[in-house]
Structure formats: C-alpha cells, structure tokens
Please model this.
Amino acid sequence: MVFDNFTQLATSTERKQVLRILEAGLNAIHPVNLMKANFAYHPKEDALYINRRPISLKPFNRVVVVGAGKLAGPVAEQIEQQMLSRINGGVIIDIVEANLSKIVSRIGTHPLPSSANVSATEEIITMLNNVTERDLVIAIIGGGGSSLLCSPESVTLDEERKIFTALTEAGASIKETNIVRKHMSRVKGGGLAEIAYPATVISLIFSDVPGDDKSLVASGPTVYDQTTVSDAMDILNKYQILDRCKMDSCGLVETPKDKKYFEKVNNILFCSNKVALQAMADKAADLGLRPKIWSTEFTGEASELASQIVNSVKRGECLIAGGESVVTLQKHSSGKPSVTGSGGRNQEMALAALLAMKEDTVFASLASDGRDNSDVAGGLVDRNNLEMAKRLRIDLQDHLNRHDEYTVLSDINASILTGITGSNVSDLVVCLKY
Model:
C-alpha cells in the first residue's frame, strides 16, 4: 500500500475506490517497475534493450551514468543491477541517497537549489569533460532536475533562488519558469549535451511537464533548445521579476545552438503521466466505474481547475487528470506576498474542490513524488470533510483565500500521506460522482 494513512482516509467505498485508482497510477510509474519492464542489458550481446529496442554497446570503451531528478536514485540502482560490470562510473543527484556501487550518489535540495546541488553538478561536469567519442553516457533526466542539476552561469546561486521563488509566487507556468532557468545555467537547455560532446548520449527522460515537451523536463539538459535570451527576458518582464527581486539585471546567456552537439544524443521519453493515467483508467474500469481522462496536461490556477473538474463530472463518472497547476500569490506594494499560507497546489485543489462540490462526490489530487511543497502528498475530500469543518468551526473559505491548506486539511482528515514515492511525472487527480 503506497498510502501511509490509507485506513484513516478509506472511510467509505467511494473514497477507497479513489485511493485504489491513485495507487494504480503510482505503481505504474514507479521506477523499479518501469526499469524492469523496459530496460535490460544482455552481456553476451553487449547490448542494451530500451523499450525493447536494441542498442549495441560494442562500439564503446566506457559507459558512464549521470542524472538528476527525484527518481535518479532508484533508476540508477536498476541500471547498476542490470549492467554493473559494464559501468565505468557516474554521478547522480536526488533528494535521497541511493544504494550504489560504481555510481556516486549525491543528495541535493528541492525545490530551491543549494550549494550541495552546485557541488554535485560540478562533479558531473568534471566527469563529462573527460569522455571521448568512444564513450557512452547514460543520462537520467527527471522531475526536480531543474533544481538539482544546478550550475548558475549568469547569476549567483542566491539570485537564481530569488528569481525562481518570484516566478512561482507570480503564477508563472512550468514552461515559462524553465525557459528562464535555461538561460541562467551552464547545464540546462542542452548545456549538458554540449559538455558531453563528442560522446554518445542516451537520455532516459521521465516527464513531469504538461504535454511531455522533452526540452522542458529538468529544463532540457540534453535537448536542443529553441528558445532565446529574448524569450526569457519577455517572461521576466511579463511578471516584473527583476522588480520583485530588486535586481537591475540578471545577465541571461544563450543556450547551445550548434546542432553538432546533439547529433549523437538520443533523447528517449521513458515515462510520462500518460502511463499513470492509463493505469488509473484501467483500475477504475476494473472497479466497475466509468472512467474518463479529463486532461493529460492541465495547467492554470489550482482553485479554478478544481472547480472546473467537480462541475464537469457526471453521475456514475470517474474523471482522471494529470498536469501541473499554479497558485498565484498576490503582492503588497512592498513586493512581498500579501498572504503567507502553507501547503501546495494539490492541497489547494483539494480544498477548492471541497468548497465547490455537490453531494455524492469524492475528489483527490496529489503530487506523484509524494511531496506537495510539504511532507503531505495532497488531499482527498468529500462532503463528510465539509461537515467535519463545520463541527470544528473552521472557515474553509478563509483558509483558501490565504492559500493556507496544510493544517486545515489535516484537521479535517483530508491529507494524503505517501512519503517520498521515488516517482515524479505530474500531479494526479481523480474525481468520482456516485
């Protein structure tokens, strides 16, 4: 069972069904399950099979593994289990330590980068500076990599942290945020591919971005970048980021545009939220429900999306969705947030859904990595939670207005707890009307 508080949450048949559907999605995208099904090394052939397609390793003298993301550890563990004798070294960065032999495991911070992230990234850069055209680099790229793989080039680490925070509070989309981050970094926006040149690169990409644009996952370290400094500057101006950060400039830099750096790079979309959503839809059908995938790439304000979903679901229907919402914090004239709540976008969706829903509805939203800006993965709500709030005299609307969901959802027994899942594809939503 992936839920630490399943018993407390599963207080009705319908709530239990929603949890089972979410569990099916999380199991489908777990790195161990994915790697066992779609990654294999055959030593006699000296060949890799990725998604059942063979890749001969005979032309390569050395194989090194690098990676960053909130699943880099378990993926690297599976790579070592498959081909330890063929690996010559590597460095990966995750938010938890991995049990590795030849690959070095480093722990970084997320969502804000730290000096630990910069130091680990420098280790990766040093390793890739020594590869040749006779070497193969296996890169693990996943959600959280934009923070974990961090080598500021045009700004200081502190300035990068300020700009990211300001973009988040302003309600910038993940696409907009990552475009800016590409143009402040040595390794993002194809930078890692340039550093690895002339080696061959196989990049296993675990998408956490709406629409599965590989150039946006972890800010596309091995993917050719179509955006420019001008695009990044337009985004900064749109949200008045430099004013918010009290900075005169941030010296954006261009990403690598010479296509020779990408000729020997094979970027493989190894997993996306579509894998989770299909498994969730299949589970809902197995439970006798009528599943419908509402969206695979929702974006927008968390509270507005929640209202749209609960108002769209029909009786007997189970809506399933994946994507990434935002929570926009209004600003005082001082530039600081006018409200200081706690929680994350999934908890905000759950609270907004609770206030918008009709009878006989269950709604759940969770971060697939198990951390919705906190130790809580998300929230699961129905009218019973509303009644509990009334008994406790909790003003739910006030909490929503202040973007303050963490404590209140716990008080009304609506918080979903999973711990760190080792997966990260997007946020996952289930809405059932019975």
Observations:
- The radius of gyration is 22 Å.
- The chain has a mean pLDDT of 96.
- The chain has 17 helices and 15 strands.
- The longest helix spans residues 13-28.
